[in-house]
Write a structure and sequence with these properties.
By secondary structure, the chain is an all-alpha fold. The chain is built from four helices and no strands. Helix 2 crosses helix 3. The longest helix is centred in the first third of the chain and has 13 residues. The chain starts with a helix and ends in a 6-residue tail after the last helix.
Length: 64
């Protein structure tokens, strides 16, 4: 592993990888429901709060 990383440095890979995730998702946060993508937005986007399945059921437009 050391040899491979020496030949192909990763630089700021972790930071850059997560930033790309955020950029791709921040304008469509509802698409992250039920995925690990919600973890990323919850960590990096101030004010983002994932919804729960219970909130989606109780807030659905059909009558009780």
């Amino acid at each position: 592993m050391e040899e491979v990383v020496a030949a192909h440095p990763r630089g700021e890979f972790k930071k850059d990888f997560l930033q790309v995730f955020v950029e791709g998702l921040k304008d469509r946060p509802d698409t992250t429901y039920g995925t690990v993508n919600a973890d990323v937005l919850e960590h990096f986007v101030p004010g983002f709060r994932r919804t729960s399945m219970v909130e989606r059921v109780t807030g659905a437009p059909w009558p009780s």
